[in-house]
Amino acid sequence: VGDDENDGGDADSAMGELFTCPAGRDKPLRRVLDAGTGTGIWAMDLADLWWLALVLTAADEHPETLITGVDLSPIQPVFVPPNVTFYVDDLEDEWTYSYKFDFIYGRMLTGSIADWPRFIRQSFEFLEPGGWLELSDILLDLKSDDGTVTPACAAQKWATHMLEAAAVWKRPLDSCKFYREQLAAAGFKNIKQEIYKWPSNPWPKDPKYKELGMWTYENLGNGLSGLSLALFTRALGWSPAQLEVFLAGARKDMRDKSIHGWWPIYVVYGQKPG
């Protein structure tokens, strides 16, 4: 699925790479919530784009965008742009912000939220009229267009076990399949779902997708032990030794360039009526 067309200037085009929805096109983004900010890189990149827009255009055309990043882990940098604030908080608790947002963005939150309808309802409540919510997540279901991902593929077996284990813990890893319906149930309009293909390793010939595949394997393949240990040992009852033998096979298939696998990336967004 291709990117949405973006007719803006340099700053707007660059901003389009950070999110997909039309947030900021019809009115300035005064407050943005980065839900599950992690290292804070997205929030700081968005802040940098605001400063770039300020340099390229008149200041009164770009009122200051205040960006709030929230995460359970205090792993964000100490020195940040002046319009970025980070808080350690649990997104599953009752939200108590004293203000509302023009845009709420969440990426790779699957597995960290138990009650997605509640999270989406709270997002709706804390958006300004006309504000946008965008969610971006991977679906652990390795696919191929040429049949090279077979039922015997260890990488796909790993994904299947991850889904099973997450279901036991009631932290679903297939949450992205339901975002569209959940946004509609919460009252959002102008809902759109896009599914992108992320190569599992650098198998594509196209340089852009080859690089994307390289980073996908770096992040997923090299992080398998950390991603899998608790789920496999506690939810499925595997021993650590049994898991490591299994993961060796999964890594082998993940980096095998003859397996033309891709992970579905769901991007779903909607607008609060205004």
From TrEMBL:
PANTHER family: LAEA-LIKE, PUTATIVE (AFU_ORTHOLOGUE AFUA_8G01930)-RELATED, METHYLTRANSFERASE
Family: Belongs to the methyltransferase superfamily. LaeA methyltransferase family.
Organism: Colletotrichum gloeosporioides (Anthracnose fungus)
Keywords: Methyltransferase, Transferase
GO terms of biological process kind: methylation
Protein name according to UniProt: Putative methyltransferase tdiE
Entry's Gene Ontology molecular function annotations: methyltransferase activity
Signal peptide (residue range): none
